[in-house]
Amino acid sequence: MSIRWRLTLSFALVLAVAAIIASLFFYAAFQNWVVSERIDSRLRVYSTALLTALSSGATDNVDYSLVRSNVASSGYASSSEIWVQLADSGGSVLAKSDNLGDRDLPVVSGPSGIPVTPSGTRLRILPIYFESGGQTYQLAFAQSLDSVDPILSRMALTLLLVVLAFLVLATASAAILIRRALSPVKNVTATAQSIASSSDLSRRVNYHGPKDEIGELAATFDRMIEQLDGLLRAQRNFVADASHELRGPLTVIRGNLDLLRRNLSEEDRQESLRALEAEGARMARVVNDLLVLAEVESGPLEQQQMVSLKDMILDAQDRALPLAGDRKIVIRCQDDLWVNGDAHKLDQLVGNLVSNAIKYTPDGGTITLSLFQDGEWARLEVSDTGIGISPEHLPHIFDRFYRVDKARSRAGGGTGLGLAIVKGIALQHGGKVTVTSELGKGSTFTVWLRL
């Protein structure tokens, strides 16, 4: 059974129980009102009139002998008979009205009730107690409920029909409302089935209803599909870019292997071997960077420790000086800041930024390292006075295999993954990396790490 029908039936069951309970309370109240208006009022009027007559106008001083001698003729003979019975405190019947015949009224000890006689007749009895000669007597006035039973039966039937109609309408309304409320779930299911059958991740639920739990479910599903679509597109692009990057070295290697099979001079042979060695090293760098990038993007850090960023930029400066040539590498600011992270990966982040700055800064230029605190963040900046980056390239500078100057990057041995690794490491540490640049004046890469 679907959740829609389970909810509908559960709602109908709750409504049925509530309607039945409310109907019982209403019927009981109506019955009390009808009996009070139709029966009790007559019994009170008749009892008051009879006692007044038998006590000569003083109902608080009833004469037992007078009552007993007149009970037999005190019955109210009509279509709605009123019966009278006199009993002592022990429940023995002392006298009764003639219209009772051989029957006796049930002796009740409390206020008026609705007892049932052995014959099945429902009675309303109004007992009145009086004392005479030191004894307590009960003078009971009774009337059958036959005159009000048709009214109560019609009311019971009316209540039954009203309850049934209410349940039918309420259940139908609940089914419609639940169907409308669960329609986004049905759309999510249909979208998921469509995606599973067609592998089309461009499909969306596109829910436009209220922002309730169902709306949140639909929105979450759309976000999940969007993320999966983005990941699959990135994977396809990654495979295509990796294939493109490896195709060049493989072509060079195959070409040089073909040359080596021919009769070459020793000089040409050595040139082919050097080309093979260079392309093999380039492929090794690409594969190594791909492995690093895959590790960085695989998830959160497994091992973390407190790392001194100040010591890290000092070490980066020492390692970069032999590679800088005529370029200057200076440290402008070096606050003593510590972050929780992976020391090796953070060191690789700084190293990639410094290597990138060296690569695109001409001789005589300056590379500046800065480390300072900005609120709850540590800001690590690597600035250079190099060639700068055009504005149209800035949004893609951290993409895999993206190169501003493709020929120059490959000639310099770059894989096009250095800055993508920088971004991945920063994100893995809960931070971010930004870049500002101006053509002909240089670039500044800023890494934000939470302290």
Features:
single chain; 451 residues; alpha+beta; Helix Hairpins; Heat Shock Protein 90; 3 domains; 5-stranded mixed beta sheet; 9 helices; 11 strands; rod-shaped
Could you explain how this protein is built, in words?
The protein contains nine helices and eleven strands. It is of the alpha+beta class. The protein folds into three domains: 150 residues; 81 residues, Helix Hairpins; 149 residues, Histidine kinase-like ATPase, C-terminal domain (Heat Shock Protein 90), CATH 3.30.565.10. The chain has a five-stranded mixed sheet, covered by helices on one side. About 1% of the residues have low confidence.
The helix fraction, in percent, is 40-55%
Euclidean distance between termini CA atoms: 54 Å
Order of helices and strands: HHEEEEHHHEHEEHEEHHEE
According to DSSP, the number of beta strands is 11
- Rounded to the nearest angstrom, the radius of gyration is 50 Å
Structural class assignment: alpha+beta
* Order of adjacent strands in the largest pleated sheet: 6-8-9-11-10
Number of domains: 3
- On the 0 to 100 scale, the average pLDDT is 83
Beta-strand residue percentage: 15-25%
Biggest β-sheet strands, sense, barrel: 5 strands, mixed
Number of helices: 9
Q: Could you name the ranges where pLDDT drops below 50 across 5 or more consecutive residues? A: 407-411
Shape: rod-shaped
